[in-house]
Specification:
Helix content of chain A is 81%, strand content 0%. With 269 residues, chain A is an all-alpha fold. Residues 265-269 of chain A have low confidence and may be disordered. Residues 274-281 of chain B have low confidence and may be disordered. The chains are: A mainly alpha (269), B mainly alpha (281). Chains A and B meet through helix 1, helix 3, helix 4, helix 5 and helix 6 of A and helix 1, helix 2, helix 4, helix 5 and helix 6 of B.
Chain lengths: 269, 281
């Protein structure tokens, strides 16, 4: 049984990884073919780094991910506080349902709705959509990240309860002080995982950015999309390889750090 | 003195509740402006013509896309089913492995999940293509791209981790004593699986199915690349309306798709709530 399960897992993981491995392999190809390997070379990486588009897209992606995840975390954490203390059950349920709509809805519908909204907004404000690129993306990414932040923070707020912050206020803290000094440190794990999730979702998003974005603000997924529209040369493979390797390193680092933390926690107990 | 204290307490309580009602305010504002209003605009576009007058034409015109809707549903349901079939044993085996291996398996599962969907889809296409890696390697001329099978394979490949993850989380939360109790009371390993683990992991299955089904139905990149231009799914249709600028039809399609998906999600959650309540009181 044990061997059977190992073989099964190896087989499925094998299939899952073959495409990624071939992609990495052909990024080192000396010819422009994506099916016949003609020797090792780094020429596609050189070509990739020679084009300014890559760097602009990378910079845009990072700026957008940082800004939208921070914004979503601030609004979402405050919202979790407010939702937990809401008196009207009906309003609470209505608000959480509305918040969850972007999570439930297919991306394409969210993208479509936001695009139509921005077109209308731009019309009202009388500005060019081109100049609105970053703002539109920021609003869209924050909106689809928000439910994930609340999902991570709200259970923490519920676990924490009201008594400690009330105690802090009885001892003379203002409501804000009690939140920042007493409650927030306890919510931190949830807030951080919400932030992380919002960040990765923003990095990874293609569909909503595709609908909302304009040519003035291109992100990496949009760049990859435009690269796969025409005949693909291995420079797209080189870009993908770099992305995959970065994610792999980040995953290992975060896992090792978590492992260490767990061991420390265990030793203390 | 006593009264004065009470007065201060009351004032502070008021202060606090004021702060807490303000806390959710930015979010309420955000949700109203950027979730509700855009959806209302979709409804507005769906029921108007290009000039902005009321019209049912877009909605009635959708009958034209009925076949595409059915095809999308068919492919998505098959892909979700295959994901469940392949993913459930995976989740089960991972949950049963020793903790150190579990971590490694989880990492192996996360990496493709975090890799952009475009990259994953494109890499399959490069392998399966007519002059692609597979055909070069085998020296054959298999024609795979453009078949239903290729599109389904792409969906399964792209979304399998989304099926495995919730089921794994659910199974690993099941108390180990349950397994032992069941086998002590005479269940065979297979019976333990079907009578104890499967019912207890139902909520994981439900969330896995939703996480796979929704993106499968609405995808357009997978069908574009692996369908070889011969397939049009509902996602492709919406994207085409977006590119060509016939936004009213696109909005009508989005509107109908949203309603259908929200209804089916709601039904599924009702169903899973009832089940859970029945088994675990």
């Amino acid at each position: 049984m044990k061997y059977a399960s190992r073989i099964y897992l190896c087989l499925i993981f094998g299939i899952l990884y073959i495409p990624i491995v071939t992609l990495i392999l052909f990024s080192f190809n000396a010819t422009d073919s994506t099916s016949v390997f003609g020797g090792f070379s780094l020429m596609w990486y050189k070509e990739l780094f020679a084009s300014p588009d890559t760097f602009i897209a990378l910079r845009n992606t990072l700026i957008l991910a940082v800004c939208s995840s921070l914004l979503a975390t601030v609004i979402g954490t405050a919202a979790a506080e407010g939702i937990y203390r809401m008196k009207s059950k009906l309003f609470k349920r209505a608000l959480t349902s509305v918040t969850n709509i972007p999570m439930m809805n297919p991306d394409i519908v969210t993208g479509m709705s936001m695009m139509l909204f921005f077109v209308a907004l731009v019309g009202i404000l009388g500005i060019e959509y081109e100049n609105f690129g970053f703002t539109a993306m920021l609003i869209a990414h924050t909106t689809f990240s928000l439910p994930y932040v609340i999902l991570n923070v709200l259970p923490r707020v519920e676990d924490f309860g009201k008594s400690l912050s009330e105690a802090a206020m009885d001892l003379g803290c203002t409501p804000l002080q009690s939140f920042f000094k007493v409650e927030l440190p306890n919510l931190m794990p949830g807030v951080l995982s919400g932030l992380m999730m919002a960040f990765t979702l923003s990095l990874d998003d293609f569909v909503i950015s595709y609908f909302v974005g304009s040519s003035s603000f291109q992100t990496l997924p949009l760049l990859i999309y435009s690269m796969t529209k025409k005949k693909v040369t291995p420079d797209m493979y080189a870009l993908s390889t770099l992305i995959v390797v970065t994610i792999f390193v980040l995953l290992i680092v975060s896992n090792v750090r978590n492992g260490k933390k767990n061991r420390k926690g265990g030793a203390k107990k | 003195m006593l009264f004065a204290d009470d007065g201060i307490c009351l004032k502070m309580k008021k202060n606090k509740s004021l702060m807490h009602s303000i806390a959710a305010a930015p979010h309420i504002f955000w949700a109203a402006l950027f979730i509700v209003v855009p959806l209302l605009i979709v409804v507005y576009y769906a029921f108007t013509d290009v000039e902005g007058g009321f019209s049912m034409e877009n909605i009635f015109g959708l009958t034209e896309y009925f076949d595409i809707f059915l095809l999308s549903l068919e492919l998505a349901v098959i892909a979700t089913f295959v994901c469940l079939l392949v993913g459930y044993p995976m989740a089960y085996f991972i949950a049963k492995a020793d903790p150190k291996m579990q971590k490694i398996y989880m990492m192996l599962l996360m990496l493709p999940m975090w890799t952009n969907l475009l990259i994953r889809t494109y890499s399959i296409m490069a392998i399966l293509d007519d002059g692609g890696f597979l055909n070069t390697l085998l020296g054959t001329e298999l024609h795979i791209i453009g078949t239903k099978g290729a599109v389904i394979f792409g969906m399964v490949y792209d979304f399998l981790p989304y099926m495995v993850l919730p089921i794994y989380t659910c199974i690993s939360k099941i108390n180990k004593n349950m397994w032992e109790a069941a086998s002590d009371l005479g269940c065979s390993p297979l019976q333990v699986l079907t009578k104890v683990i499967l019912p207890l992991s139902l909520s994981g299955i439900i969330s896995g199915v939703t996480m796979v089904l929704v993106p499968c139905i609405s995808t357009f990149y997978i069908s574009q690349k692996l369908g070889g231009g011969t397939f049009e799914l509902i996602g492709d249709t919406i994207e085409r309306q977006f590119v060509s600028g016939t936004l009213n039809v696109g909005a009508a399609l989005s509107f109908v798709m949203m309603i259908l998906i929200l209804i089916s999600l709601w039904v599924m959650h009702k169903f899973s709530d009832g089940q859970e309540g029945g088994i675990v009181p």
